[in-house]
Design brief:
Number of strands: 16
Largest sheet: 8 strands, mixed
Structural class: alpha/beta
Helix content: 40-55%
Number of helices: 28
Strand order of the largest sheet: 8-15-14-9-13-10-12-11
Number of domains: 3
CATH topology of the largest domain: Rossmann fold
Strand content: 5-15%
CATH architecture of the largest domain: 3-Layer(aba) Sandwich
Radius of gyration: 56 Å
Distance between the termini: 10 Å
Oligomer: single chain
CATH class of the largest domain: Alpha Beta
Length: about 800
């Protein structure tokens, strides 16, 4: 390098801008009083902005899901509920116990009443209803069609059509008509049929509701009434099935009692016929015996022998009857379940236990209203129930075993007594046979006849009593109210379905909007810039798309010809324009001029984190905007990897920045390489030929001397550098300028990438004036304020009019020595 032409920098006292440094003298970047490590807070307003940004997505999801829910609810058939009521009175079992009627306190026995509730909901009863109504061959039962159209149902849901659909007059009146008699119970041979009818049984049980009626005035009081409800899509079917269930239940109970009394009557009639036949045969045998043996009268001795033998015979007959009775009772008790049934009626302890067990179950049901299965009080009641059930079962088993033992003992005793009497009778007979065998035999036959007649009289009396009971048809269950055809549907609750769908869709839409916002890693607003980077947002540059024809600086004529070449779209400024785009750059200019205390910054670096964020466009228009204030501005194209200034301003190929930094160039030659735009009056130093090592040139001492020279010659020096995340060029230049302007592409730049760029500048102690949020769509709600603000076009102009004139550049002799 020629010593006479070497550029030597002299630091003037008023051009240095102080930077804070740590204890080791390492400078920090400027954070404007904000801790860069502070955690960014998320406010409720941020969620609202995220939802508002995607408001049409939320509205679309709500409309779609709600519409589908309305259509689905409207297509569901109406559900009708029919209700009947039956009464369960005290049970009369007088025919089976004895002459005095015996009433069981059914309503005082919770076990009996709960049993009746279970019978009402049993499959056997439902199966009889299916057969009674012949549902298997009735197509209306499973049809479930909607009588309204979908549109009529929607209008009804909205409250515009409340008319209940009239029954179909073409429908025959005998649909589901009850038969004259209830279907018989399922026999052993009909078990295959039960499997075939299971779908219909399931449908009846699915729509059946059985509830005990309680009086609700004051405290709840028990009644002997049971409500039977049935729901179906056809009101006629609902009422007929409900009435069929009530009638079948009543008939089923009557049938059981009738069968029991009929069985008792059959046994009595059979026994009466046997005794009558036996008496008739014995009387004929007695007459024939007397005739054959020529018995006319019996003397005293014969009477004594006969009386003794007759007494033994009478005792033997009684013993034989007692043995038969005991044997029959013992054999009957050995049948499955018979002993338990006999023991149950005489087991007071078991009855008390059942009552306590029912009370505990009722207590547990009350606890389950407010508690869960795992609650301590529920577990305690469960343990008490289990213990009481075990005690009741043990008591029943003991009673059953005791009963069987007693019956067996009684049978053995009567058998032994019969055998003993038979032996005595045989012995007495053999002793007296020789005396008057004929007389003795005569008395024996007579005694047998008298005994059978006494037993016959007793059975005849029992048979008459049983006939009276059967004639009265005792039934403790009756129908109180029959179900009528419902006037209107009770379901489905379509509005609840629609409301639920509305809230769910709203939640889904908001959740999806927030989730998309969470996935969106780009910077959208100035608030995000300040929270993320802890740097001020100096300006928001709107997108040129949709704002009409772009206006180049200098008016329409400048578009046709600039420096001998066609204009370029990067130049968006216009002196007379009041568009939001032009006002945004004026706002940026004002923010830069006021970014430092005391005086405006002399040198400025414009850079970005990645390519394509608009740093070159921002640098060009910022420099042009500064030129419009009357200041002398030079724009340096330091992006020697992808230079664009020459093409933007239409300059011809010529030496530039790379030529100055790579060779010995005098002051005059350096200034001669700077071109001036004819329209804007902006001085431009192009990059020159692309060098192989741009970073080494930009970090050299020659670059520092060049910056000193240009700051002395011009009021402002604006430098366009490569993206700092991709190359180190911008980081090197940041130490040579008064401050850095970081350009961020709104809605495109990643938060992590932008934070990385800010951190790189922070690490070298560069002063970052702020951030320019570039290429922002002003039509969005987030930037409505900026659109109105820039559209006014008055604030920045008035503010700059009141600002002092820029300081003149320092003379070259005060800052440079040519050697």
């Amino acid at each position: 390098m020629n010593p006479s032409n070497e550029l030597i920098r002299k630091e003037p006292a008023d051009t240095a801008i102080g930077r804070p440094a740590d204890s080791n003298g390492i400078p920090h970047s400027y954070n404007y009083g904000v801790d860069p490590n502070a955690e960014s807070e998320v406010h409720l307003l941020d969620y609202w902005r995220a939802v508002r940004k995607r408001l049409w997505l939320v509205i679309g999801i709500v409309i779609l899901i709600t519409t589908l829910a309305v259509i689905n609810a409207a297509q569901k058939p109406d559900i009708y509920s029919a209700n009947a009521r039956v009464q369960v009175d005290l049970e009369n079992n007088g025919a089976l116990v004895g002459k005095t009627p015996y009433y069981m306190g059914s309503m005082n026995d919770p076990v009996y009443f709960n049993t009746q509730l279970q019978i009402l909901g049993s499959q056997a009863l439902a199966r009889r209803v299916v057969k009674t109504l012949d549902l298997e061959h009735n197509p209306d039962f499973f049809k479930g069609t909607q009588k309204r159209t979908t549109w009529q149902t929607v209008k009804m849901m909205a409250g515009f059509d409340n008319n209940v659909p009239k029954p179909d007059q073409s429908k025959p009146n005998d649909v589901l008509q009850l038969r004259t008699t209830v279907a018989p119970t399922t026999s052993q041979e009909d078990l295959v049929e039960a499997k075939r009818l299971s779908p219909y049984v399931g449908a009846i049980l699915g729509g059946l509701r059985v509830d005990p009626v309680k009086e609700s005035r004051g405290l709840y009081k028990e009644t002997r009434l049971i409500d039977i409800g049935y729901t179906h899509t056809d009101p006629e079917v609902a009422s007929k099935v409900c009435n069929a269930i009530a009638d079948t239940y009543v008939f089923n109970n009557l049938e059981k009692k009738t069968e029991s009394n009929a069985s008792t009557g059959d046994v009595l009639q059979k026994r009466i016929a046997e005794l009558q036949q036996a008496i008739r045969s014995d009387e004929e045998r007695l007459v024939n015996y007397a005739k054959n043996n020529q018995i006319i009268s019996l003397d005293a001795n014969q009477n004594t022998v006969v009386e003794r033998l007759a007494g033994l015979n009478k005792q033997l007959l009684e013993a034989e009857n007692e043995r038969k009775t005991a044997e029959a009772a013992f054999n009957a008790a050995k049948a499955p379940g018979a002993a338990s049934a006999l023991a149950e009626g005489d087991n007071k302890q078991a009855g008390d236990g059942e009552n306590k067990l029912a009370d505990l179950r009722q207590k547990r049901a009350l606890l389950m209203v407010d508690a869960t299965e795992e609650a301590p009080e529920v577990k305690e009641v469960d343990q008490q129930i289990a213990e009481l059930e075990r005690q009741v079962n043990d008591s029943r088993n003991r009673k059953t075993n005791t009963l069987l033992t007693n019956l067996e003992t009684q049978y053995r005793q009567t058998l032994g007594r019969e055998q003993a009497l038979r032996a005595a009778f045989q012995q007495s007979r053999s002793e007296t046979v020789t005396q008057n065998e004929a007389a003795i035999n005569y008395r024996i036959i007579q005694q047998e006849i008298d005994t059978n007649k006494t037993l016959l009289d007793s059975l005849l009396q029992r048979s008459k009593e049983n006939d009276v009971i059967m004639a009265s048809k005792p039934n403790n269950i009756s129908v109180v109210d029959y179900a009528i055809t419902p006037a209107g549907p009770v379901g489905p609750n379509r509005m609840r379905t629609v409301a639920l769908a509305l809230f769910l869709s709203l939640g889904l839409g908001v959740g999806l909007a927030l989730f998309l916002e969470y996935l969106d890693d780009t910077v959208h607003s100035t608030d995000e810039v300040e929270r993320l980077l802890h740097l001020p947002a100096l300006a928001v540059i709107p997108s040129a798309n949709g704002m009409g024809r772009r206006k180049l600086l200098g008016g329409p004529g400048a578009l046709q010809k600039r420096n001998g070449h066609s204009g370029n779209h990067e130049l968006l400024m216009n002196v007379d324009s009041r568009s939001p785009l032009a006002e945004s750059y004026r706002h940026l200019r004002t923010s830069l001029l006021l970014s430092t205390a005391g005086r405006a910054p002399r040198s400025l670096l414009v850079t970005s984190s990645l390519p394509g964020e608009g740093k070159t466009t921002t640098a060009v228009n910022t420099a042009v905007s500064l030129t419009q204030t009357g200041a002398s501005v030079v724009l340096i194209d330091a992006d020697m990897r992808r230079p664009r200034m020459r093409s933007i301003f239409g300059f011809s190929e010529r030496p530039g920045l790379s030529s100055i930094l790579s060779s010995d160039v005098s002051r005059e030659d350096t200034l001669a390489m700077i071109s001036k735009d004819e329209v804007t009056g902006l001085h431009v130093l192009t990059s020159g030929p692309i060098p192989p090592n741009p970073a080494e040139l930009l970090g050299s001492e020659q670059m520092r001397r060049l910056m000193t020279l240009l700051q002395a010659e011009f009021t402002h020096v604006v430098v366009d550098s490569p993206p700092i995340n991709s190359f180190t060029d911008g980081v090197l230049i940041s130490s040579l300028v008064d401050g850095v302007l970081l350009v961020v592409h709104g809605g495109k730049s990643s938060r992590h990438v932008v934070k990385r760029a800010r951190q790189l500048l922070h690490d070298v102690g560069a002063k970052v004036f702020g951030v320019v949020l570039n290429n922002v769509t002003l039509q969005s709600n987030d930037y409505y304020y900026y659109q109105r603000y820039y559209a006014s076009g008055n604030y920045t102009s008035d503010l700059e009019a009141d600002m002092p004139a820029p300081p003149p550049p320092a003379s070259a002799s005060s800052t440079l020595d040519l050697r």
